[in-house]
Amino acid sequence: MIDFLYEAFVAPWTWGAWMWRGVLAAALIAVSASAAGVFLYLRRMSLLTDALSHVALAGVVGAYLVTGSVGAGAMLGGAIVAGVLSSLLIGKLATHPKVRDDAAIGIVFTAVFALAVILLSTVARDVHIDVQCVLFGNVLGISDHSLLLLTLTAPMTLALIFVFFRPLVLSTFDPLHAAAVGVPVVLVSYGLMSMVSVTAAAGFEAVGAILVVAMFIIPAATAHLFARSVRGMIVVSIATAVMSAVLGMYVSVWTNVYSGGAIVVVAGLIYLLAFLFAPEHGRLRSPGPASGLRIHGALP
Amino acid sequence: MSVAVATENLTVSYGSVRALDDVSLSVPEGTLTAIIGPNGAGKSTLIKTLMRAVRPDSGVISVLGSTERAALKQVAWVPQRSEVDWDFPVTVRDVVRHGTWGRLGLFGRNRRELVAVDTALARVGLEELADRQIGQLSGGQQQRTFIARALAQRARLYLMDEPFAGVDAATETAIAGVLRDLQREGNTVVVVHHDLATVRRYFDTVVLLNRELIACGPVGECFNRTTLAETYGGALVTFDSADPP
Hints:
The complex is a heterodimer.
Chain A: H1 2-14, H2 17-42, H3 46-67, H4 72-94, H5 101-121, H6 131-136, H7 144-163, H8 165-173, H9 175-180, H10 185-207, H11 209-224, H12 230-255, H13 259-277, H14 289-298
Chain B: E1 3-14, E2 17-28, E3 32-36, H1 43-50, E4 58-63, E5 75-78, H2 92-104, H3 111-123, H4 139-152, E6 157-161, H5 169-184, E7 188-192, H6 199-202, E8 205-210, E9 212-218, H7 219-222, H8 225-232
Parallel strand pairs in B: 3-7, 3-8, 5-6, 6-7
Antiparallel strand pairs in B: 1-2, 1-4, 8-9
């Protein structure tokens, strides 16, 4: 028994630096994405993260066209710039009364993504971008540069959320009230989108553009089933995200499967368990007086 | 008497649809005012424009005697119930606390503001439910939660979007009582209202709106068969029994 536990949980750490580097990278991206993800979830903007991951490809191609380099710095820098610019563009478009928010996101990001694909097949043909790597990441072979970037962005995200907690909550819950009492609602919104772009770009190499989306959405959705306060929701979101990262890495090592995928599958399973068994919100709980009131309160 | 809300030649459009057309009105301070009109008359648009959430095509808005945005710090907003995310992870007390955050800034906290929160909760009778998640409240309790936030904000002008929509009779009476108390303390309350039968009972001033301003002034002068017919057109016939003489 002891031998088995040792083999399963301790031995992988002795197999090489890639294990702790992978766990560290996955945990760092889990922390920043899941914390920022809470506010995106509450604003019903979870899919924005999906869109941002598409725009990243345009950023990578753009960075190559400007700098002539496909180094990690140019790639991530390009992705950040493209993400922030596209967020600004969506924000502008969405404030127009004839443009729906969800359509604004869909229009900007698919168009930018398509542009990137065209550029890749024409002017940027000789750049050998490993689209596979951008989309799916490679947490076990993460570079020093990416690891450093994650080590900087994760605490920065947490610090920003801590400092601007009240403006974030006010403008997420009731933007009209927030604006009335002096919160720069538009600035807060752009700030949040920029934070998402930075986190998404920094998370590419770890879990990939597509799976970083899961780290924004799933832990926040899980936390919403438990939390009674935004603060509590952030804590639960971070906790389940880090748990998914660590457990996912173990699963990946044990079964020799792709790490990013294993992490997200674990996150999804944790959500499923929470969905079924969470107190108050759980679907397999018999409806008590509390949930009866909830239904009553939800009537228009 | 000074003016709580004034607009001059206010025009607002959503794309090519005109929501408000050349509206000039003024609501004196200290009144309890109902904005009434048919669906799509621009009632919600009017108060959202006053909150500066909707940008007018043209016209001037002044709130509490100022055209500056900063005047809104003394304006409390009570949203329509359907516009609130009742699944948001906040308790009643949290929402009321939000009313004090405008003064407290990013990190500030002090005893006086905590007392203000408790006082506001007590005034609307929600002390016992203070730690409930807002989704677990009845319609009337939800409405009172936002009134308590407004109280904690120490506003002088209260803009409310249909506070009586979907609440039972007892709650309606209770909310009306709170509104009268607010007025008695010298505040101005402006409410988007739907029920023509209760206009005389609850309000002293009325704004009749149907994209254009039909009438604006004391209920006794402005709320009659003629102005209502002009506001609602032929549909008014059905309101006859509830209609004032």
